[in-house]
UniProtKB/TrEMBL annotation:
Coiled-coil regions, chain positions: none
Function comment: Part of the binding-protein-dependent transport system for D-xylose. Probably responsible for the translocation of the substrate across the membrane.
Originating species: Rhizobium lusitanum
Pfam family, one: BPD_transp_2
Protein name: Xylose transport system permease protein XylH
MF terms in GO: transmembrane transporter activity
PANTHER family assigned: ABC TRANSPORTER PERMEASE PROTEIN YPHD-RELATED-RELATED, XYLOSE TRANSPORT SYSTEM PERMEASE PROTEIN XYLH
Topological type in the membrane: Multi-pass membrane protein
Family matches, as InterPro entries: ABC_transp_permease
Transmembrane segments: 30-52, 64-83, 105-126, 138-156, 176-195, 207-234, 240-260, 291-311, 323-348, 368-386
Gene Ontology cellular component annotations, sorted alphabetically: plasma membrane
Amino acid sequence: MNVVQRVGNNSEQRASGKAALLSGAQVRSFTMIGILLLVWIVFQFLTSGLFLSPRNLTNLSGQVAITAILAAGIVMVMVPAYIDLSIGATVSFCAVIAAMSSSKFGFSVPSVIAITMLAGLVMGLWHGVWVAILRVPAFIVTLASLLAVRGLALVVTSSETMSPQADLLVISDTTIPAIPTAILLFVLWIGLVYVQLREYRAQTGAGVQASALSVVGLPAIFTGVLVVATIAIAGSYRGMPLPVVLLLCVMIVVGGLLRLSAFGRRLYAIGGNRQAAALAGINIMRNTLVVFIGMGLLYGLAGLVLVSRLASAPPNAGNGMELNVIAAAVIGGTSLLGGRGTVSGAVIGAVLMESLNNGMSLMNLSSAYQSIAVGLVLLVAVYADIRGRGVKLLGE
């Protein structure tokens, strides 16, 4: 068996078997979508119709964008069986860098964006050097950064909230009108259908029994409905927020790397069986370094969206963010044991997590209840992941 094959796809069909209508990943995805729709219906009832209003859904999309951008990155980190606990601190620090560059030093918006992205890249490189080259466990490295970077943010701001200049708020305030939104989403939908069709032809060409409905039809139908709903919501309110466009770009880049590139196949191989991947000639150190550098760039991007959305940069703004991001990825089917995970699943998980937070906020419930919900959802998701992998629990 070639270890560079995607180890995480545990629904792969054998040539002699009968094609399944739905793959295991699709079953998980549709289950999550069903739960999400149920949550939306419940909150729609509990908030007297406010939750599904175009205004709130647009506001929710801005909340989702930050979590989902980082969830896409954490999938890339977790597939080769690493973890990143520093997300809240590093994103908050990037937001502080953006605010200071804008207000204290007076840099232009393009310069602020470049500086913030560079700051995120440096932190990602720092993690990569410790994990890939010095071989310190990612858990320890990122936990250390969680503490150190949080303290660094307090030092550089003197524990005060930084506020950027008004021109930086364009990142969150800009919306794309309905017609350009429709064109953009339609083009992306065509691209998705094309990719799915290529995958179906590749499977059948390799002698794998694949269902056209499963591989092409259902994804095309579901995303088509989502595109139409998004266009309708964008057209009835202000349009599509720019952070959502940035999220779509991240999904295309990260999802494409994981699903369509040799780099992605190597990451799945590393997460599935690190020793076998090394014996197959995969450079684990180099691939690990690239993963953490990529995650660093997403720190910077999320930091820019965060400071623009809040119109300020409190040094402790990202407290607990790492839990939401990891929970979103695990809920979406990414395994804590490595070798399995998709960007689309993580984004669905992010929508679920932020829907819970948004709905409870509309009900005027305190943040304590939101923390309880996040903790319980994460616990259930990890349990489902362990059971799904067939791992025996202690005492069994």
